[in-house]
Design a protein that fits this description.
The protein is 5% helix and 32% strand. By secondary structure, it is mainly beta.
Length: 154
């Protein structure tokens, strides 16, 4: 065993590859997402057996511990020891799979673009900005400045 085969987190040292338990790190409880269920839950439901929505979508169907979290319908629920408590409604979140947006400057074509679900479109171009601004001399504090033609030859 090599000297660098050890890892230390806080005051706990373990061999590389060993598992740190939450209690090793001074954490009494944490939330643990266990999957998606087809069982209809509601706030305060005491259902102690869940049905997986699809094969492998739920890591356990009974024996829940404090902090286990599941998705049921469009809501998240956490096991509070004797009942499921509503954490939140998925409709309030922007899901990564629903719309991934990227806004970037296209220096080659001098425009700002946006990409949503793989489809790119123009947000604004330099000429659009210039037209929209339509600044007059007075707008930038040059109202009393007179423009004169430059002499090009003597």
């Amino acid at each position: 065993m090599l000297a660098n085969d050890w890892i230390k987190i806080g005051t706990v040292t373990k061999h590389l590859g060993e598992t740190f338990e939450l209690s090793d790190l001074g954490i009494a409880r944490a939330m643990n997402f266990i999957g998606v269920t087809s069982t209809t839950l509601s706030d305060g439901a005491t259902t102690s057996t869940l049905t997986a929505k699809s094969t492998g979508s739920l890591s356990k169907t009974t024996g829940f511990v404090l902090g286990d979290v599941v998705l049921s319908g469009d809501a998240e629920y956490v096991w509070a020891g004797s009942a499921w408590e509503l954490l939140g409604d998925e409709s309030a979140y922007a899901l990564k799979s629903a719309a991934v947006t990227n806004v970037a400057w296209d220096g080659t074509n001098n425009k700002l673009t946006k990409t949503i679900n793989g489809s790119t479109s123009d947000v604004v171009t330099i000429s659009t900005i210039k037209t929209a601004l339509a600044l007059a001399k007075a707008d930038v504090g040059l109202g009393s400045v007179t423009n004169h033609a430059q002499v090009t030859s003597l």
